[in-house]
Design brief:
By secondary structure, this protein is of the alpha/beta class. It has one domain: P-loop containing nucleotide triphosphate hydrolases (Rossmann fold, 3-Layer(aba) Sandwich). A hairpin with a 2-residue loop joins strand 10 and strand 11. The radius of gyration is 18 Å and the shape is globular. It starts with a strand and ends with a helix.
Length: 249
């Protein structure tokens, strides 16, 4: 059984003549421990799909199921609880709290969920160590590089031991070296730590870290590619050509 599944997922913004269909009957599934990238031209519905998967927005029709729970049937309190415990989010611009240290930012989901401060800090410290940020725990975001800030965001996303990680352009604000490091950590999250990962990206080189790529155009799934685990870097040129073709047809 898939960890996350959508059924005819549709999102329409506006009404009447001004209505815009951002997603049109999208049905996809992601297994536990699978790393899936979502690609496509600007405005194709990538971020809309991610927001619906994470319960950050409500679908116009269709369903999102996470571990059997239908998000459309949950009230706001239950949806907030599910997001906090089952889903970790990683954003392009990190979304760290400026006045909190790296340690406090990483522990925030656990603190908000009512964990004792000592337990929250202990679990967050464990994940900061795993992602290679153990010696920067007392630094605020403005004292960290972009790559280090994104590592804090990764530790925050993993601290509550969620089943699903949603990453929206997680390398879009990083240099190429830091981008590869973050993509490698997302790969590790799926391969070694058993998390399902869904990542939106425009970068074919970063998408090549995934197990599978879903291509969107005009709000619909138009193609899907499973990558060769032994030669991911060789796939990036082919992916670049495929995205370019979607933009011109």
């Amino acid at each position: 059984m898939s960890l996350i599944r959508t059924e005819n997922l549709t999102k329409i913004y506006g009404m009447g003549e001004t209505a815009v269909t951002a997603l049109d009957r999208v049905s996809v599934a992601v297994d536990a421990g699978e790393f899936v990238a979502v690609m496509g031209p600007s405005g194709c519905g990538k971020s809309t799909l991610l927001h619906l998967l994470g319960g950050l927005d409500r679908a116009t029709s269709g369903r999102v199921l996470i571990d059997g729970a239908d998000l459309s049937t949950l009230n706001d309190a239950r949806l907030t609880e599910l997001r906090r415990r089952q889903i970790g989010f990683v954003f392009q611009f990190f979304n760290l709290i400026p006045v909190l240290s790296a340690a406090e930012n990483a522990a925030l989901p656990l603190t908000l969920d009512g964990a004792a401060p000592s337990a929250a800090q202990s679990k967050a410290r464990e994940w900061r160590t795993k992602i290679g940020l153990g010696n920067r725990q007392h630094h605020r975001p403005d004292q960290l590089s972009g790559g280090q800030q994104q590592r804090v965001a990764m530790a925050r996303a993993l601290a509550a031991e969620p089943a699903l990680i949603l990453a929206d352009e997680p390398t879009g604000n990083l240099d190429s070296r830091a981008a590869d490091e973050i993509a490698g950590l997302l790969r590790q999250a799926s391969e070694e730590w058993g998390r399902a990962v869904v990542m939106v990206t425009h970068d074919p080189r970063i998408a090549a870290y995934a197990d599978r790529i879903i291509f969107l155009k005009d709000g619909s799934v138009v193609d899907e590619t499973r990558l060769n685990a032994d030669g991911r870097a060789d796939d990036s040129d082919a992916l670049r050509e495929k995205v370019a073709a979607l933009q011109t047809h």
